[in-house]
Amino acid sequence: MTIHSPTSTTDEILDVTDRTEAVNNGDASDLARTAPRGPVMETRDLNVFYGDFHAVHDVNLSFGRHEITALIGPSGCGKSTVLRSLNRMNDLVAGAKVQGSVTYHGEDIYGPKVDPITVRQHIGMVFQKPNPFPKSIYDNIAYGPRVTGMKVTDMDAVVEDALRGAALWDEVKDKLKSPAYGLSGGQQQRLCIARTIATRPDVILMDEPCSALDPIATARIEDLMSELKTEFTIIIVTHNMQQASRVSDRTAFFTARPDETTGNRTGLLVEFNRTQDIFEAPADPRTEAYITGRFG
Ligand SMILES: Nc1ncnc2c1ncn2[C@@H]1O[C@H](COP(=O)(O)OP(=O)(O)OP(=O)(O)O)[C@@H](O)[C@H]1O
Q: Which NCBIfam families match (predicted)?
C-alpha cells in the first residue's frame, strides 16, 4: 500500500512494514510510557499554524493498529486541528500550515510526491454532524467507490457490506433507494460511517461523531466503534470523557497554554498513555485536574 501519487516510481514507495520499536521521543517522552508497537501513524514535532497563530505545538503521538485512540482536552486545545492534520484536511483551510511530520506506515503524508486525495482514501474521516449527500441511501455508499475508481464487480454487495459493517443494514435494507435525509440523526451518522468504510480505508478519524446524537444513538455508535476496530484503526476526538474511557485503548490529553505576550492560546499534548492509566493514574497534575472536573 502506498500513499504516493500514481506518478511515483516503485523505488520511491516505502514498504508497509510494522515497526516494532516503541516510540517515545519528543516532549511527551516520559509520559508516553506505553506507546503502541508497530504504529500505523505517528506525528513527530507536529506544529500547526493558522496564519500567524500557532494553534498546536510539538505534538508527538503514535497510533496503534486496531486500536482506538481518543484525543481529549478543553475547548480550543487543538484536538480537531491535530485530527485534521492526520489526513491533510487542513490543506483545505486557507492559511493553515503544518510543520513537523505525520507518517502513515512510515511514509510522510506531507511528502512532495504524496497525493492528498490518496491519503484521504487510506485515512477516512467522519465528522461531528452527520453529513449525508442529498442522494439515496444506496448512492451515498456507492458514491465513494465510484469516484475513487475502485474495482467493483458487484456494487450491491459493496453497499450491503458497508451497511452491515456500520450496523445499519437491517434498518435500511428495504428502503435503499429512499433519500438519506429521511433517516434519523443516529442512522445518518452510521450511514456516514458506512460511506467511509465503503472505500476500505485503513484508518478512520472521527471528530466528535456523537456530539449531535442522543444517548441511545451514541451507545450504538460506541458499540459500532468497538466492532470496527477489529478491521480499522480509529482516532476519535471527543469532549465526552466517559466515552473516551469506555471506547478507547489509549488517550492523549491536550491543554492550551497562553503566550505571555500575546495571550494567544497554543495547544500542546500533556500526556499520552493507556486509557486506563490516564483515567486511574494520570502522571500529570493537569490531566488529573481535567478528568476530575477541576479544570477545563
Ligand atoms: N480554520 C481556522 N482558522 C483559524 N483558527 C482556527 C481554525 N480552526 C481552529 N482554529 C483555532 O485553533 C485553535 C484550536 O482549535 P481546534 O478546533 O483544533 O480545538 P479543539 O480542541 O478541537 O476545540 P473544540 O473542543 O472547541 O472543538 C483554536 O484557538 C481555534 O480558534
A: 3a0107s01c2
Is there a contact between 270 and 257 (Cβ–Cβ < 8 Å)?
A: no
Domain contains 286: yes
Asked if residue 19 belongs to a domain, the reply is: no
Q: Is 48 in the pocket of ligand 1 (CB under 6 A)?
A: no
On the question of pLDDT at 229 being above 80, the answer is: yes
**ipTM score over 0.90, yes or no:** yes
In ligand 1, the atom with minimum distance to the C-alpha of 239 is 25
Supply the range of the domain harboring residue 256. 38-128+200-291
pLDDT given for residue 38 in this prediction: 80
Give the count of domains, the chain. 1
d(CA 141, CA 135): 10
**Probe residue for ligand 1, chosen from 77, 86, 90, 236 as the CB with the greatest number of ligand atoms within 8 Å:** 77
The pTM (predicted TM-score) of the whole model is: 0.88
Determine if ligand 1 sits within 6 Å of the CB of residue 78.
Answer: yes
CATH number of the domain at 210, please.
3.40.50.300
Query: What pLDDT, in 10s, does the model give residues 117-160?
Result: 999 999 999 999 999 999 999 999 999 999 988 899 999 999 99
Report yes or no on 281 lying in a domain.
yes
Query: What spatial distance separates the first Cα and last Cα of the chain, rounded to whole Å?
Result: 41
